[in-house]
Amino acid sequence: MSSSGLPGVAVVQCHPDMSAAKPDTRSLDKGTIRLLERAVGKNAVLWRPEEVLAFEYDGTIERAMPQAVAFPDSAEQVAAVVGIALDAGLPVVPRGAGTGLSGGAVAALGGVVVALTRMKRILEIDAEDQLAVVEPGVVNLDLSKAAAPHGLYFAPDPSSQRACTLGGNVAENAGGPHCLAYGVTTNHVIGLEVVTPAGDIVEFGGRTSDTPGYDLRGLFVGSEGTLGIATKITLRLLRRPEATRTLLAIFDSVDQASAAVSAIIGGGIVPSALEMIDHHVISAVVQAMDVGYPADAGAVLLIEVDGLLDAVAEQALEMRDVCLAEGAREVRQADEAAEREKLWAGRKGAISALGRLAPNYYVLDGVVPRTKLPAVLRDIYRLGEEYGFPIANVFHAGDGNLHPNVLFDERKPGETQRVLEVGAAIMRLCVDAGGTITGEHGVGLEKRGYMDWIFSEEDIAAMAKVKAAFGSTDLYNPCKMFPTGKGCGEVSQAKIEHVMKQAGPDAYI
Amino acid sequence: MAVTPAINDAPSQDDLSRCVHCGFCLQECPTYLQLGIETDSPRGRIHLLRAITDGNVEATPALTSHLDLCLQCRACETACPSGVPFGRIMESGRAMILQQGAAPRSWRLRAWLLRQTLPYPKRLRLLFNLLRLYQRSGLQRLLRASRLLRMLPGGLSEAEEKLPHLPSTSYEMKSDGLPPSASAKKVALLTGCVMPHLYPRTHEATVRVLARQGVEVVDVAEQRCCGALSVHAGDRTTGRALARRNIDAFLQAGIDAVVVNSAGCGATLTEYGELLEQDDAYADKARRFSELVTDVNEFVIDVGGQAPQVALDIRVTYQDSCHLVHGQKVRNSPRQLLASIPGLELVEMETPDRCCGSAGIYSLAQQEMSMNVLDDKMRDVAATEAPVIATANPGCMMQLEAGLRRHGLKGRVAHVIELLDEAYQAEEDTN
Amino acid sequence: MSTSALSATDLEDALQAVLKQGSLVAEDGSHVVDGLEPRFIATPYSAAELAAVLACANEHGAAIIPWGAGSNMMLGNVPERYDVALSTARLDRVIEYEPADLVVTVEAGLTLAKLQALLNKHGQFLPIEGPLDATIGGLLAVGHGGPSQQAYGRPRDWLLGCRIALADGTIVHTGGRVVKNVAGYDLSRMMVGSLGTLGVIVEVTLKVASLPAREELLLNTHADKIEACDAIRAGALRGLALRAACVLENKAAYWLSGPASAVERTRRELYEAHDGETERMDAEAGVQFGGALAVHDASDLEFRATVPPSKTAPTLQEFEACSRVLSLGIESACYPTVGIVLAWLSHGDVNAYASFIEQTRRAAVDAGGSLVVTRAPTDLKARLDVWGETSALSLMRSLKQEFDPKSILNPGRYVGSI
Predict the structure, then answer these.
(1) What percentage of chain C carries pLDDT values higher than 70?
(2) Taking the mean position of all CA atoms in its chain, how far away is CA B345?
(3) How are beta strands A112-115 and A68-70 bridged, if at all?
(4) What CATH code would you report for A243-353?
(5) Which one of A163, A252, A305, C391 has the minimum C-beta count within 10 Å?
(6) Using an 8 Å Cβ cutoff, are A105 and A116 in contact?
(7) In C43-93, where do the E strands start and end?
């Protein structure tokens, strides 16, 4: 078996000695198991190594075995599980569907995984006030389906929306293509019920947009499971627009397409989505599915506008003109739902389809100011050439949120290490361009080491104050987000530290 | 039979490594939807199988129970953007565990039972004659009334409940007397192991519908069970033996196509090429054979599918058979055929391509899960208010019939081809 | 009238040492909060200087009230202590503005008027509403959503990142200068609406918007307020191009905004749906419309209730009924699409006001919302908590304890007397 275990999306590993997926032998003592079983029911606890094995991963390749997994069914049960684990000195790791892309649900130091998948009730859909109250295990798309009869939907639409849970979306402050116009998860959360690390069940926000007091819900959203576990979520729903138009603008080069992005954003109309798909990705997508992308294009832009029918027609025309002026060779327009879905299918399945181009890919997530897109993209391709990897880009161009995918074959000796190097160099490009290290995937285990590229010690100390105020300790989803933590040192491979240092500010300034 | 080469079955590293564990499959998996547990999801099962393949864990009863719970419906394959061949991984994974001798007794018993019955038409005939006797002698009514059945162990009473009313005679291939034209396509029908006894009417309808398209249906008497149930249960050795026999039988018949009206069998037949990949003597023949195999819905559409002229005036909902939609990627043809029937209103249910819980012998082996999955399905069916459920596989027909009884719903289950046949018949009656 | 016992001379010396000449003056009556006067007014020239004032105050345990333009100083409970007014008036530089990115970075003391003027030159604007003389930092510290929040969200949705001077004098930054960012905790959001009790915002990076192609105001006259509320909700539910909608007296005021064709269509539909009197105004009037609501000087007390939008009309009715029972004068404006009711009370005494607030607050809370008294006489403030009860108060106290352990920032003015 290869060195990094499950080949796939990301290549950063936490336990180099666990690469062979050997189950952790530190099994839990019988007493703790019994306590957990008493708290949530005998059928709602897994502890045998050959079963908890299936909880050692998320959507990345970060892996670490928990010692037990509990499936609570209520806020009280969540509180009980958290209490039992912390009393026993075991780390607590919240988990939704395990589709995250930064290792947030990976039990870095073992411990008890609190899996929220059984809390999947939609408690209320209030069509009049356009809100929904849900449990954390509800799947993103299921909420929109349930809201559809009322003409409503939930706006954040990460690519994994068919599988990912709303609790996970809250933890990671998930985004998606349509966040350009409608905002990311945090813009849509109006209330939360949270089990704090101290075991208290508290409410943040409520059923209205403004509630007196600190914006704890704003702090909690995107805290990556380090400040507690949301057990009830009140979300804003949006009204389905009267009309939607999707454009596919076809360009000969990525340069032209990025220029068009700048022109659209600078021009005053914010489309509801503005996505770029480069030629590498196009070639994977056309192999995987029939979505009508031209195989010989240098890049395509997927542009969507919605709103009142009258305005949408007008805006679609403006977008078309801008694209043609920037050198688009053709702009196609889809008005009907089925045609639009077809265009979107290519985008949503794009990253997974990269499996057709190479055995492995490493998906990155960085953000740059939109005016810097053309220059940064050129530099990314240049880095790919320097390191000898094709880099496929499919991303939220309207937000400047890049997703470069480094294509490689982990079976070639030394390749994984060099992928990490080019990944770090790309992150550095983003930071140097005035951007950030993650736009929607989160810091998690994967990017802890990059945190001090964008934050000073004092900045991080301020974040630690928040953690302390919530009563969160080193046992609470350890080794996530913060660059340091007790026992987390050995989790990061020495070679990754090295890569980060190499690409770090000193090497560039 | 030819000398059989010893083949070590195990999921291939290539297959396993295609999974990038993105989780896109989770919500398509009926057992994950029921339980919400990663170990009972496609991604989790692949991970567990990978750990066994790599020799890192033992196939303990706790672990194999999660593999047991897999319906092998392959809905995850449709959902997977990376093209992970889950069915193949699960089948070869189960085979690996059986071969390692680590399998639980229930697995070995199941494989043995299947091995002792399915390849033998005479034993099957005897078995079904006994069942028919049981139903017709009044014994069934007596036992049901006495509630003695409830005392049967291991869900056998539910299995008894699921048994459809058996027709008085089993299917026999008969010539319909029409002289085929010289240019007519020559095809053979896969008759299968239990279908002739359970649903002879489907075969009869199929032959009539094929004849109506001007196709000649020839009898291939040497054919046997396709081996699907054994392959699914991990007994690929028995599966291969049956495959070789069928390949020889059908290839000798000099036909243009092997038409299959049972989606589960069809999927297995189209995969003979893979099953016998490592058998030098059969690898080529198997690939050639698999290319001849076609589902009856596809076939009728491909040969031009004449639209019936008389209206049926029924409301129908279509349940995709998993091994048709996910196994063979046939989604549109059955719907096209239904749509071609005048007066037939097709009402789609919520998630028609989600398994009904039949899954071959799963409905017997995993009673509880099978029933939970069925109950969800019947709720979706009931919402359509369609009195007819069309589907394309005998297992699904049996399960859905049981579902109608269980939920006290009026209505019937029919193979798509049966409905098409009804329309043709009505047309002939009018003429 | 300070309650703190520290020596004024020590504090003055220490402050003089960290501030430039002329940055520290003695109180002159210009920075009174709820009748309390500070000893000094510090107006630093830079963020570093401002942070040094905080460090110094922290060391001496001196109470600070951060001060922008002073336009919202009537909000909050009566301060426990008050030693220094810390003004951001001199932190009014534009740090960076790249119109093509729709992102601007400015110091916190810049006024809304100056920022909008700069942005307008490039066809852009910041969709945060409030008094035009208010500072950006102050508006964010208060954090209330304005009339346009239905179309443009709340102030916190436009803040991409900021620099904060903490109580101990360290300056930290949070967020970034890009429109999408999930690295680290969202301390920017924590600061919005925290009324300067966790730190002083010294610099902000904001997302800005393009000016809409067409804007106009439409006033439909209805039989009464309730009918106006219902009409507005019906229009909003149809997905019309509305930036804001407000009920004033018996008029439904619609702020139409968007592409020309969408505005035309919206106007047409609103005309068609209404058979009463209609008045149309241009965009300028619309901009005034946002600011004008804040000024009702004749009243004694001003409050703001936030309820689920469908409860706007019932809440308003409740308020009016209550005012009749207590014989109070009430004026109100409400935003039925976002569930905000603003009201101004007059002609009563402290007892009547207190009992009005107690009853109406209960009604707002029962409806799933809250009620905040945004301006009230000091003697009334002594009788009630202007914020009302809040959930998770102990967590908020912990947060305050972590960021401001000596409670030098706005002591006592925030929820739960934080």
Answers:
(1) 95
(2) 26
(3) parallel
(4) 3.30.70.2190
(5) A252
(6) no
(7) 64-67, 84-87
Length of chain C: 418
pLDDT of residue C285: 64
Flag residues of chain A having pLDDT under 70: 1-26, 486, 489-509
C263 is written with which tokens? 């505005």
Looking at the domain that runs over A25-115, which CATH code has it been given? Answer: 3.30.43.10
Of C360, C256, C233, C229, residue with least CA distance to C305: C360
Q: Measured between alpha carbons, how far is C216 from C44 in angstroms, rounded to an integer?
A: 42
Which of A204, A266, A438 is nearest residue C100 as measured by Cβ atoms? A266
Question: In this predicted model, what pLDDT tens digit does every residue of C199-247 receive, in sequence order?
Answer: 999 999 999 999 999 999 999 999 999 999 999 998 877 888 999 998 9
Distance CA A78, CA A70 (A): 9
ipTM for the predicted complex comes to 0.95
Token code pair at residue C389: 């009860």
Enumerate residues 339 to 378 of chain A having a beta carbon within 8 A of any beta carbon in chain C: 367-371
How far apart CA B274 and CA B272 sit, in angstroms, is: 5
Whether the CB-CB separation of C208 and C106 falls below 8 Å is answered with: no
Q: Which of A211, A311, A438 sits opposite C182 (nearest CB)?
A: A438
3.40.50.1370, 3.30.70.2740, 3.50.30.10, 3.40.1390.10: which CATH number matches A358-503?
3.30.70.2740
DSSP string, B332-361: HHHHHHHHTSTTEEE-PPSSTTS--S-TTT
Q: Which two tokens stand for residue A500?
A: 């980060």
What is the side-by-side strand order in the sheet with B314-318? Answer: B344-346, B314-318, B388-391, B412-415
Q: Which residue has the tokens 């029409």?
A: B178
What range does the domain containing C27 cover?
1-211
Cβ count near A40 (within 10 Å) = 22
In a domain, C409, yes or no: no
Does residue C59 have a pLDDT over 80? yes
pTM of the model as a whole: 0.93
CA distance A284 to A301: 16
User: Each residue of A172-212: pLDDT tens digit?
Assistant: 999 999 999 999 999 999 999 999 999 999 999 999 988 99
User: What is the rounded CA–CA span in Å between residue C159 and residue C103?
Assistant: 10
- For C66-186, where are the alpha helices, taking DSSP H only? 112-121, 136-142, 149-152
State the total domains in chain B: 4
Segment B88-136, tens digit of pLDDT: 999 999 999 999 888 888 888 888 888 988 888 888 888 888 888 888 8
Please tell me which chains touch B, using 3 or more CB pairs under 8 Å as the contact test. A
Same domain as B191, residue B155: no
Question: What is the distance in angstroms between the Cα of A100 and the nearest Cα belonging to chain B?
Answer: 8
Q: Give the C-alpha distances (Å, rounded to integers) separating B21 from A93, B76, B83.
A: 19, 12, 12
Inter-chain touch A164–B19, beta carbons under 8 Å: no
Partner C contacted by A307 (CB < 8 A): yes
Residue C418 inside a domain? The answer is no
Which residue from C300, C221, C213, C292 is spatially nearest to C257, judged by alpha carbons?
A: C213
Low-confidence residues in chain B, pLDDT < 50: 1-2
For the domain spanning A122-239, the CATH number is 3.30.465.10
**Residue A122 φ then ψ, to 5°:** -90, 110
Number of domains composing chain C: 3
B235-261 pLDDT tens trace: 999 999 999 999 999 999 999 999 999
Tell me the shortest Cα–Cα distance from B250 to chain A, in angstroms.
Answer: 33
Closest CA to C305 of A127, A208, A191: A208
Residue A306 three-state SS: strand
Q: Answer whether C377's CB lies under 8 Å from C301's CB.
A: yes
* Percent of chain C surpassing pLDDT 90: 80
Sheet holding C84-87, edge to edge: C24-26, C40-42, C84-87, C64-67
Give dist(CA A174, CA A112) in Å, integer: 24
